[in-house]
Amino acid sequence: MAHAFSRPRSAPGPRVVAPDADHARPRREPVGGRGTRTRTALVTGASSGIGAAVARRLSDEGDWRLVLSGRDPSRLRAVAEDASATAFAADLTLPGADRQLADFTLATVGPVDLLVAGAGVGWAGEFLDMPPHTIDEVLEINVPATLRLVRLVLPGMVEAGSGRVVLIGSLAGSVAVRDEAVYSAAKAAIGAFADALRYELRGTGVGVTHVVPGVVDTPFFERRGTPYRRSRPRPVSAERVAEAVRTAVVRGRDEVYVPGWLRLPCRVRGAAPGLYRRLATRFG
User: Which residues lie in coiled coils (predicted)?
Assistant: First the structure.
């Protein structure tokens, strides 16, 4: 069960790469009347998969100024050009990369109104076979890197009294998936973080949305080392998840499952955990 662009690394990821001058879009003055401005969205994991689909969907809205971040400069630039966005290639696990991204966004397009945290990486296989450095990578990208970036952009939202943080989770984090122990743990942490942060932000005007996709038709599975071979559940498109993100932002939803029927196994697990575990053991 997965959600977004990931890429296994045998060596450290690329260093922070600022966009070319001719690709950067300078900060513009507010439009639409006094006291109003075009909204700004920052999307991570935007090199491909869900992040790229979200960037294109927000671009279709026509009223977002977009900054996109990802680890692959060439693919990120292609998505940014397609979405009329500004690209900032960065490996957010590197020291200071999150601060550079946040500062660049503020200087280029202004305060962040919407953060879509879509950066993620997975690994499939038995936990006893998982290399220690891969454990660190899966946890670091999915959890600390995400939390650090939220911590940087959130004060501006609270000060403005508006904004939304969208955290891309996974069904694996809600029900746990065999051979994805560390990924399941990381996404469970994101789900708990979303709930706890939402409680803290009550009354501030800032919302938190947790998006829970099931199997998504992206390069995620190939890059995690094991392709998806099951006939069911069938993968959904990244564009379908992106539309769910857009709807959640517009309607202020706290939690969204894609597809919606995924709520059922989560409810069964919550109401009858013993039964769910027996079913999961039998059917995988």
Answer: none
